[in-house]
Specification:
Strand content of chain A: 15-25%
Oligomer: heterodimer
Largest sheet of chain B: 7 strands, mixed
Number of strands of chain B: 42
Number of helices of chain B: 20
CATH class of the largest domain in chain A: Alpha Beta
Strand content of chain B: 25-35%
Radius of gyration of chain A: 41 Å
Low-confidence stretches of chain B: none
Helix content of chain B: 25-40%
Largest sheet of chain A: 7 strands, mixed
Largest interface: A-B, 86 and 89 residues
CATH architecture of the largest domain in chain B: 2-Layer Sandwich
CATH superfamily of the largest domain in chain B: Bira Bifunctional Protein, Domain 2
Shape of chain B: elongated
Order of helices and strands of chain A: HHHHHEEHEEHEEHEEEHEHHH
Distance between the termini of chain A: 77 Å
Helix content of chain A: 40-55%
CATH superfamily of the largest domain in chain A: Bira Bifunctional Protein, Domain 2
Radius of gyration of chain B: 42 Å
CATH topology of the largest domain in chain B: BirA Bifunctional Protein, domain 2
Structural class of chain A: alpha+beta
CATH topology of the largest domain in chain A: BirA Bifunctional Protein, domain 2
CATH class of the largest domain in chain B: Alpha Beta
Mean pLDDT of chain A: 92
Mean pLDDT of chain B: 93
Distance between the termini of chain B: 90 Å
Chain lengths: 341, 798
């Protein structure tokens, strides 16, 4: 019996002091078929029959204890090894050694996309039209007859006496009205490039981008226009934005309104961006002029509608703090890099 | 439109309204005020008299004065050359706030100075408001006898106490270019009574006239002329000069001033001819004159057919509606005149004025349109003023060509229509009171209100919605509730091409390329170097400049310009792209342009880089197509036989889809790049319309074989012109459906390979969906493939 206890102590002691190499040797020394513990079974033959089970049990317990100690030691040694290995693999987490290149959407694309998504969510479609337009859609059908100052050669790029680079996305609206005169209601936005004979400077560009909107249906009101624009402004600028209408004039709407929003920088308190007024002029709008509806073949006694137009450059400049419109057409990647999203 | 508040207060009592309150109300009612110009600024000003003026002991130009301001005598140092004893001057006392700052007591080079003697310029009065002979141009202002020492209302007495609002007038309100109409408008806006002078019929005087007046142009339907045989030229009274100055009009003499003044008042441009210059007593309006004509500004203008000209005895005497002639103008010794008040076609006046580059107040008013009764009103007023200010007499009866006609008409609107359109609950009282404020007659019948439109609003107010706008405009509108349209549900979604654009933009930006927007209008060089133009370039009739003359016919040069700009600004390893419409004589197309140079992938720490080359561009294009849902089987690559002027002939290709040309890509030609000072640039341009018209391949779930696959490699030596695609096609054809995958995994030329040859290594994966392939089956097929490759391509197995 003492033999067993001594052997156990000897084995556990050896295991405790083993390293990963000697541990395997110890396993053979103590636990293999010819190992020190198994060899004890030979003594069983000399024992009385009634003691044999008890002895067997004790040898088994010894074997289990030593085996468990070895497993534990092994795990311990492996952990030490693993820790050492991990430590040797330590990286400098502050170093950047792979920056996947990321291009950007152009700010004008970004703003247009944002507007599109707001309106698509409200059930609008996105209509387009030719940039090289006839004066019929650009002017005449928009209630701007021949002789109107807006039709001046001074302001518009004509390519022949009746064709021009469209000066307003209103031309798209006029095409939609005509195409859908018998397929009402209409709910569209019309984004696109437009062109005017302006010399380029910090706030003028001979090419710019508009997005107009058009809704035609029964019982459409100015209040509906206000609600729709308020929603757009809140999505685009800030949730607490308010808008106000100022009477204005566009040939294709009656009544017409300029729309101001509360300044998104100071939230209406007054700051340099809004010149201290708390308000920023953001778009033009109005109720579609009955002449425009009639010219498109829509009964203006039954149907009414609203239209609005916003300058994408203007929104981009306000939203992103761009001070020179030409930056939007230079395509300097140092500028474009700012629009990663 | 310049709106002088002093002048406005002749017609409306502005008591209790400060400038900001007036402006706020105007803005609410639809008049944008671009600027508020105070003619002058200055507090603590008093009239003083220089009672002693000595040279400053320590300066070669300063004076030391004793200036009496009534209550005390001040020591003031003054630098003006005209400072002298006995002069009556404007004194800014200590504490005075001037545009340049506050006046403080001080010592100037050892001499005490307690105030400042002022030039009008120091009070903020601009040069153009000063008379030409004003001492203030080069010194201090010299006051005349109207001023007493101690007076403080100097600016008012000088007529410089005005505030001018620069009001922008919308195209529908040309009437507001007249002071009288503007006063009516302001009365409505401010809800105050308006008192306008009544001069109707003042011109109905005079002897019979034998003056002959004709128009030979439909663009002059109405003309009034009146001969005034005796007038006296003198200076205009101060009140008139002040109003003219406030409007930026130069004061000349009473006659010229009256014609300008009446135009400002009534909106009708008037012209006065010296009676002596028209001995024939005849005026004919013509539009068939051609030649050079000298206007009263002394400049020669080239007149063309269509331009309206005032002629007498067949010779021009003025450019109608724009500027009078040098040969007929009012002179210093004029003693009689002819009044002209005519109606000229607005579009024609605008055309002529724009072409001649001659923008006058008169032309601007004609171009925007006059009210129907304007000519008659203006002549009435001119006669009244000529009598009052120029001792006019010897009038002849007004001669008239055509007729001014205005029959007031009515517009009916119902309260229910108004409220249905606006989405608000106006009462009849509110609606009617707006009409009354505007000075319109308005009567109510049940829920209908009927408004009579006066002549000055006839061009703008035509339908009931116009009336609604007036009501909205002149009532508080900030309380309008916000609603959303109540209408049948619609599905909003992007169109096919709109989706394609988004997919491409997302994909390319994820690869590190930048979305750009370039100008549509380009120079001739861009057109000459266009890439696959589908037709001729379209040019502007009147371009802004040669640089912006044509609509671009491809995107390549815009992107190369953007690339050059970036390379010049220390940006490198670039990928830029643009999606845009282009135009030619054949119509509109949409294209995608991609330009790349340098490394697509790069990491310096890791010494990692992927240099852009032909294959990188090809890979991106393939990914675009597969992301858009087009199977690679529909896509093919052809030798570039479309444009080898701009592309490297052996590193470029034409991309085809469904048998149609989809685009062109590859390395740009070094010779072309050299002209742009560029190197190693890769470019692709795709016709997006081809993609938009193609139907994406159906999505079908792949069948995954339950049976194992077998992989075999082949290494071949083939002539270098043998194409990878042909080898792979041969493998697929011979191998049939059990070839699951075949690809090139190595291409080698160089050492150990004979010149003109290359080594190509291919890997083939065999797999059957129905059964496990037996080695001998695979060997048999693989052997057949190898044999076929050897014989077809004269390949040697390595």
């Amino acid at each position: 019996m003492l033999d067993l206890e001594a052997l156990k102590n000897e084995a556990l002691n050896a295991v405790a002091n083993a390293d990963s190499k000697t541990l395997e040797d110890l396993r053979i020394e103590y636990l293999s078929k010819k190992g020190k513990i198994q060899s004890l079974m030979a003594q069983m033959r000399d024992l009385p029959a009634e003691e044999k089970p008890k002895f067997g049990q004790m040898v088994n317990d010894l074997k289990n204890a030593v085996s468990a100690a070895m497993d534990a030691k092994k795990a311990e040694l492996e952990e030490v090894l693993m820790n050492a290995k991990l430590l040797s693999e330590k990286v400098d987490i502050t170093l950047d050694a792979y920056t996947p290149k990321q291009g950007t959407l152009h700010p004008l694309t970004l703003v247009q996309k944002e507007i599109e998504d707001v309106f698509i969510g409200m059930g609008y479609n996105v209509a387009e039209g030719p940039e090289l337009e006839s004066d019929l859609y650009n002017f005449t059908k928009a209630n701007t007859p021949e002789g109107h100052p807006a039709r001046d050669m001074q302001d518009t790029f004509y390519v022949d006496p009746t064709h021009l680079l469209r000066s307003q996305t209103t031309a798209i609206q006029m095409r939609v009205l005509e195409a859908q005169a018998n397929d009402l209601p209409i709910k569209v936005i019309c984004p696109g490039k437009v062109y005017r004979r302006d010399d380029d400077d910090a706030t003028h560009s001979h090419q710019f981008t508009q997005c107009e909107g058009l809704v035609i249906g029964k019982n459409i009101t100015v209040a509906d226009l206000k609600g729709t624009l308020e929603l757009m402004i809140r999505e685009m600028f800030s949730k607490d934005a308010k808008i106000r209408f100022r009477p204005s004039y566009f040939p294709f709407t009656e009544p017409s309104f300029e729309v101001d929003m509360t300044c998104h920088i100071c939230h209406g308190k007054g700051c340099p961006t809004c010149k201290g007024t708390g308000w920023i002029e953001i778009l033009g709008s109005g109720m579609v002029h009955p002449n425009v509806l009639e010219m498109a073949g829509i009964d203006s006694k039954v149907y009414t509608g609203f239209a609005f137009g916003v300058g994408i450059e203007r929104v981009a400049m306000l939203k992103y703090g761009i001070t020179d419109i030409r930056d939007l057409y230079t395509n300097d990647v140092r500028f474009l890099d700012g629009f990663k999203r | 439109m310049k709106l002088s508040l002093n002048w406005l207060s002749d017609f409306i009592d502005l008591k209790g309204l400060d400038t900001n309150a007036i402006v706020d109300q105007m803005v609410k009612c639809g008049f944008e005020v671009e600027a508020i110009d105070k003619m002058s600024e200055g507090t603590n000003l008093v009239v003083g008299k220089v009672i002693e003026c000595k040279d400053h002991p320590n300066s070669d130009h300063l004076h030391v004065t004793k200036t009496d301001i009534g209550s005390e005598v001040l020591d003031i140092v003054c630098g003006a050359p005209n400072c002298r004893e006995g002069l009556k001057v404007i004194v800014a006392k200590v504490g005075a706030k001037l545009p340049g700052g506050e006046i403080k007591a001080g010592v100037i080079r050892g001499e005490a100075s307690n105030g400042m003697l002022c030039s009008l310029k120091e009070l903020g009065i601009s040069d153009d408001l000063l008379p030409e002979d004003s001492p203030s141009h080069s010194g201090i202002e010299e006051l005349d006898d109207r001023f007493e020492v101690g007076d403080t209302d100097i600016l008012k007495k000088l007529g410089y106490d005005d505030t001018i609002l620069d009001v922008s007038i919308y195209a529908n309100r040309p009437d507001c270019l007249s002071m009288y109409a503007m006063a009516k408008e302001m009365g409505a806006i401010l809800d105050r009574e308006v008192r306008l002078p009544d001069f109707e019929g003042k011109a109905d005087i005079g002897e019979e006239s034998d003056f002959i007046l004709k128009s030979e142009s439909a663009n002059c339907p109405h003309f009034l002329a009146k001969v005034v045989n005796h007038v006296t030229i003198k200076e205009s009274p101060e009140w008139m000069k002040a109003h003219l100055r406030a409007n930026g009009v130069k004061c000349i003499n009473n006659l010229v001033d009256i014609s300008n003044y009446v135009m400002l008042e009534t909106g009708q441009p008037l012209h006065f001819y010296d009676l002596r210059s028209n001995p024939a007593k005849e005026i004919t309006v013509r539009d068939d004159y051609e030649g050079v004509y000298t206007a009263l500004d002394g400049i020669d203008y080239q007149i063309e057919k269509g331009d309206l000209m005032i002629t007498s005895e067949g010779k021009p005497i003025g450019i109608a509606g724009i500027m009078g002639g040098d040969n007929t103008k009012i002179l210093d010794d004029t003693t009689g005149l002819i009044i002209e008040a005519a109606l000229f076609d607005h579009a024609q006046i605008r055309r002529t004025s724009n072409r001649l580059g001659l923008q006058t107040e008169a032309a601007a008013r004609f171009a925007k349109g006059l009210e129907p009764m304007a000519q008659n009103k203006a002549v009435d007023r001119a006669v009244e003023l000529l009598i009052e200010l120029a001792d006019a007499s010897g009038f002849e009866k007004t001669v008239e060509y055509g007729k001014a006609d205005y029959e007031p008409y009515q517009i009916s609107e119902t309260l229910s229509h108004l409220n249905a359109l606006i989405g608000k609950e106006y009462t009849m009282d509110e609606a009617v009171s707006v009409m009354k404020r505007l000075g319109f007659e308005c009567k109510v019948e049940g829920e209908t209100f009927i408004t009579t439109i006066p002549s000055h609003r006839a061009s703008d107010l035509k339908i009931r919605e116009d009336i609604d706008e007036e009501i909205v405009r002149l009532t508080d509108f900030d309380d309008l509730t916000s609603t959303l349209p109540l209408m049948p549900q619609t599905v909003g979604k992007l169109s096919n091409i709109q989706n394609i654009r988004r997919v491409i933009r997302d994909l390319l930006t994820k690869h590190g390329l930048y979305d750009t927007v370039n100008y549509t209008l380009v120079n001739e060089k861009y057109i000459e170097e266009s890439l696959l133009p589908s037709g001729d370039a379209v040019a502007m009739i009147s371009p802004l400049s040669d640089a912006r003359k044509y609509i671009r016919t491809s995107l390549m040069n815009s992107l190369l310009e953007a690339l050059s700009y970036n390379l010049d600004h220390y940006n490198s390893d670039l990928g830029l792209f643009e999606i845009s419409k282009i135009y030619t004589s054949k119509g509109e197309e949409e294209r995608l342009g991609i330009v790349m140079e340098g490394d697509l992938i790069q990491d310096k720490v890791k010494h990692l880089s992927l240099k852009t080359d032909f294959y990188v561009v090809k890979g991106l294009l393939r990914q675009i197509l597969s992301t858009l849902g087009f199977e690679m089987g529909r896509v093919s690559i052809k030798e570039n036989d479309l444009d080898t002027k701009h592309f490297h002939p052996y590193q470029s290709a034409v991309l085809m889809m469904d048998g149609k040309i989809l685009g062109i890509f590859g390395k740009l030609h070094p010779a072309y790049l050299k002209t742009l000072k560029l190197n190693d640039v890769y470019y692709a341009e795709l016709m997006l319309d081809v993609l938009a018209q193609a139907t994406p391949s159906k999505v079908k779930a792949p069948v995954i074989s339950k049976y194992p696959s077998v992989s075999r490699d082949i290494s071949l030596m083939v002539k270098e012109e043998v194409k990878a695609a042909d080898l792979l096609a041969c493998i697929r054809k011979v191998g049939g459906h059990i070839v699951k995958k075949a690809e090139v995994f190595d291409v080698y030329q160089g050492e150990h390979i004979e010149k003109g040859y290359k080594s190509v290594s291919l890997s083939i994966v065999y797999e059957d969906n129905e059964k496990t392939l037996k080695t001998e089956d695979v060997n048999a097929i693989h052997g057949k493939i190898v044999e076929e490759l050897k014989s077809r391509f004269e390949a040697i197995q390595r």
